[in-house]
Amino acid sequence: ADLDLAFRAADGERALDKRQQRSDDQQVWRAQLNADYDLGARTRLLGGVSAANLTDDGSESRAAATLADSETKTIAGRLGLATRLGRATTVSVIGYLQDLDTDARLEGSTSALRAVDRQRSRQELRAELANTSLARTRLQLRYRYRQADLDETTSEGDLPGGPAATQTQTVAQDATSHDLVFRGRHRFSRVAQLRIGARWQQLDVDESVAGDQWFWTMGDRKRERLSWEAALRTRPGRDLKLDLGWRGWDQTFTRTADDGTETGWQANTLFAGLNWNAHARAVLHGTVSWGTEQVELTGVGEPSGSMGPVAYDGTTLRFIPGLSLRVLQA
After folding, report:
1. CA distance 200 to 222
2. Could you count the other beta carbons within 10 Å of the beta carbon of residue 217?
3. Could you give the CA distance from residue 130 to residue 24 in angstroms, rounded to a whole number?
4. How far is CA 323 from CA 206, 208, 237, in A?
5. For residue range 280-302, what is the model confidence (pLDDT) as tens digits?
6. Rounded distance, CA 56 to CA 42, Å?
7. What is the pLDDT of residue 212?
8. Given a cut of 60, is residue 306 above it in pLDDT?
9. pTM, full prediction
């Protein structure tokens, strides 16, 4: 087990041509405890907790003096298990918890100019599976699930809930995300290796706003992305390296709060990279890529002269040659 304690304080004065003066006064302390326990020859239990506190009592002067007063408290914990199944498979599962509480305000000479009360929590689960049972091959599968909640109240003229507040806005946000990744690697020989990968991501956000709504929020939205990659790394000669590959993306972004406006994006790229040690003092290298990209916006009105296009289809060719030359040698 390891216990880590830390404290840091920072203060100072800054000025910009006498028009702006800033006084810093920050303090932060942190405590973290990590521990692991071997349940057996192949299984290990991991855990940890941490707590932190950040305060800021600085001030700033422009046309009038203002005082920044904020405090952020963070509590987090994790618990996980790592084990080996047989001689070629490893599995790990770990969970995270975090809670963050922030109270901040910007005060003038007589009252609070702006204040915020924010609570954010996060729960996360990660799992990973790796296998090397196939000859000269490594396969890996990773998954991450995250649930995040936000409750925030922002006000002007007074603290949130105060009688002198001129504007108050409350935001409640619930975000859920999934992230699934597959990676594979196979070595054909000493001069050729294949790497493949695919990734699926999904983000779903439910957001509600109450009060004066004096600043903009995006509202309910959903994003889904699929990406993939394949690359062949070759070494045709002792002084020559050649890499070939392909990448692709397919993403859909939907704003539920905006009558279902949907943005679709698809892209594919072929690429190649060359590195040649032509001489003891000279290296030639270069990359070339060719790609297509399509963007389409649906669920909106017809385009007019005051708005941009709602569809895009483009092709890009890039070639970047290079030369590295050693002029002097020690």
Report:
1. 14
2. 12
3. 48
4. 52, 55, 19
5. 888 999 999 999 999 888 876 66
6. 47
7. 83
8. no
9. 0.82
| pLDDT computed for residue 15 by the predictor | 76
**Burial per residue of 313-330, b for 16 or more beta-carbon CB atoms within 10 angstroms, e otherwise:** eeeeeeeeeeeeeeeeee
Report the amino acid identity of residue 106: L
- In the three-class reduction of DSSP (H, G, I as helix; E, B as strand; rest coil), residue 110 is classed as coil
Task: Give the largest CA-CA distance in the chain.
Answer: 78
DSSP state string for 231-262: EEEEEEETTEEEEEEEEEEEEEEEEGGGTTEE
DSSP 121-182: EEEEEEEEEEE--STTEEEEEEEEEEEEEEEEEEEESSSTT-TT-SEEEEEEEEEEEEEEEE
* Residues 6+ away with beta carbon under 8 Å from 1: 33, 34, 35, 36
Token representation of residue 273? 């990279």
Which residues on neighbouring strands pair with residue 48, listed in sequence order?
34, 78
Distance in angstroms (rounded) separating the CA atoms of residues 134 and 140: 12
pLDDT in tens, 193-237: 999 999 999 999 999 988 887 777 888 899 999 999 999 999 988
Length of the chain: 330
Copy the structure tokens of residue 125.
């689960």
Q: What is the pLDDT of residue 13?
A: 81
44's CB contacts (< 8 A; 6+ apart) are 36, 37, 38, 81, 82, 83
CA dist list (Å): 14 to 28, 60, 106: 20, 9, 18
Q: Two tokens at 199?
A: 């990734």
Q: What are phi and psi of 254, to 5 degrees?
A: -125, 130
Give the C-alpha separation, 58 to 321, whole Å: 51
Q: Please say whether the beta carbons of 228 and 199 come within 8 A.
A: yes
- Return mean pLDDT, the chain: 88
**Hey, what are 26's tokens?**
């920050």
Picking from 67, 82, 74, 129, the residue whose alpha carbon sits closest to that of residue 101 is 74
Radius of gyration for the alpha carbons in the chain, expressed in angstroms and rounded: 27
**CA–CA distance from 209 to each of 159, 162, 260 (Å)?**
18, 19, 18
